[in-house]
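User: I'm preparing a small set of examples for a lab meeting where we compare how different chains pack in three dimensions. I only have the primary sequence for this one, and I'd like the structure in token form so I can line it up with the others. Please keep the answer compact; I'll paste it straight into my notes.
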Amino acid sequence: MEPIHVLEIQKTCDAGFIQDVEAASGQRVRNCYQCGNCSASCGYTRFYDYPVSQIMRLVQLGQRDIVLGCRSVWLCAACQGCTTRCPCNIDVAAVMEALRVMSRRDGKVSEGDVRMFYDEFLRSVKTFGRVFETGLLPVYGLLSRKPLTDMDLAPGVLRKGKLTFLPHRIARRREVTGIFERFEELRRKGASEGGRADDH
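Assistant: Understood. Below is the structure token output for the 200-residue chain.
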């Protein structure tokens, strides 16, 4: 974690950042009073560069570049522990999700492998109507240049029927694909009109 020089915060403040985050998440981030419950509830805090409570404070201080470029928003597992324990009834997990979308849109994703997993997960859902794990994991392994990661787990999960060699057939798969196609069409339309469609 790179230390923040407190005297430089005014110079790097983006006054509109908190409004952008609140509009994207639907939450009143300004109501956070730094009790620390979210950080205490998070099982991943030890892996973060900034604990969740510090992320919330940095949003309040308009530190767009620091927040959207940090590792924390991409390592969040969206477990909802922070949301459940927030005394201000802020859906902190929704704020973190909004920050991921904004980070990606602004080209500031710090965890390339996590973004790659998101992309492959969604591609699998678009193709099969739900995630096909047996197809997803090898593709992700190759793209991330870690093809043998977790291969030792494969025999056990196959024996337990947790993975299948063929994708499940689901009803109305085409309708799921249609959701992705409509989103992509809206994004293309926004780009052609000079707007900035959110990239998820």
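A couple of notes for your slides: The chain has two domains: 6-105, 112-192. Residues 112-192 form one domain.

User: Perfect, thanks.
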